[in-house]
Amino acid sequence: MPKRQASPATETSAKPAKATEAADRRLLFLLNVGQRRVQQWIDARSAENAGVSAAQAGVLFYLLHHEDALVGEVGAALQLSPSSMTGLANRMVVAGLLTRWADANDGRATRLRITAAGHKAIARARDVLAELNDLLHDDFTEAELRVVARWLGNLQKQFPAEG
Q1: Which of 20, 73, 78, 161 could disulfide-link 69, Cβ–Cβ 3.0 to 4.6 Å?
Q2: 71 exposure class (CB count in 10 Å sphere: 0-12, 13-18, 19+)
Q3: What are the residue ranges spanned by the domains of the chain?
Q4: Residue 18 CB-density burial (10 A; 0-12 exposed, 13-18 middle, 19+ buried)
Q5: Helix count and strand count (H, E) for the chain
Q6: What's the rounded Cα separation, in Å, for the pair 37 and 148?
Q7: 3 state SS of 30
Q8: pLDDT grade, residue 25 (50/70/90)?
Q9: Hey, which residues does 159 pair with through a beta bridge?
């Protein structure tokens, strides 16, 4: 792959540029810091408002559309290791958010189902996500949001999940 030439915004000059003159082009850094800050915000809001962590909300939302899924299917969809998904499922069962049982066709496999308490947590998590989406969309036009969504979607194409 040919190297990209530095844009004028990234080249050094004799005078330092003002923050408002050039956009920060350290995309990986900005993506990582942004992801961490959003994750912290989600975890803080989820714990106080929804009563579940962001990871638990992810499991609940997945199961909402994939009823009685295998633990491994949920883990794969959320890109969690098998041991991480097993631990997460165990904590959610203890918290009363999920029930689990052995698969009828393969006793080694475990299926998950949302409980009534899990459905209540989903409703609260939706409120948290609505607030988050409002914050993420704030100060951007629809055209700008389409570009951001296209860029983020392209990351998944350029760097597909392993496995």
Answers
A1: 73
A2: buried
A3: 51-158
A4: exposed
A5: 6, 2
A6: 18
A7: helix
A8: confident
A9: none
